[in-house]
Amino acid sequence: MDDEVIDKTAPEEDGYGLDNRTVSAILLAVAAGDAARLADLFEPLHPADIADLLEQVDAGKRREILLLAPRQFDGEVLSELDETLREEVIAFLPPEILAEAVRELESDDVVDLIEDLEKPQQDAILDALEMVDRVAVEQALSYPEYSAGRLMQREVVRAPEHWTVGETIDHLRANKKTLPDQFYHVIVVDPGIRPVGYVTLGKLLSSRRSVRLTDLFEDSFRPIPVTQPDSEVAYAFNQYHLISAPVVDDAGRLVGVITIDDAMNVLDEEHEEDILRLAGVGEGSLNDRVIETTRQRFPWLFVNLLTAIVASLVIAQFEDAIAQVVALAVLMPIIASMGGNAGTQSLTVAVRALATKDLTGSNVWRVVRREVAVGLVNGAIFALVMGLVGLVWFGSAQLGAVIAVAMVVNLSVAALAGILVPVTLDKLGVDPALASGTFVTTVTDVVGFFAFLGLASVVLL
Amino acid sequence: MDDEVIDKTAPEEDGYGLDNRTVSAILLAVAAGDAARLADLFEPLHPADIADLLEQVDAGKRREILLLAPRQFDGEVLSELDETLREEVIAFLPPEILAEAVRELESDDVVDLIEDLEKPQQDAILDALEMVDRVAVEQALSYPEYSAGRLMQREVVRAPEHWTVGETIDHLRANKKTLPDQFYHVIVVDPGIRPVGYVTLGKLLSSRRSVRLTDLFEDSFRPIPVTQPDSEVAYAFNQYHLISAPVVDDAGRLVGVITIDDAMNVLDEEHEEDILRLAGVGEGSLNDRVIETTRQRFPWLFVNLLTAIVASLVIAQFEDAIAQVVALAVLMPIIASMGGNAGTQSLTVAVRALATKDLTGSNVWRVVRREVAVGLVNGAIFALVMGLVGLVWFGSAQLGAVIAVAMVVNLSVAALAGILVPVTLDKLGVDPALASGTFVTTVTDVVGFFAFLGLASVVLL
Question: Where in the numbering of this chain does the CBS domain appear (chains A, B) (predicted)?
Answer without folding.
Answer: 152-216, 217-273
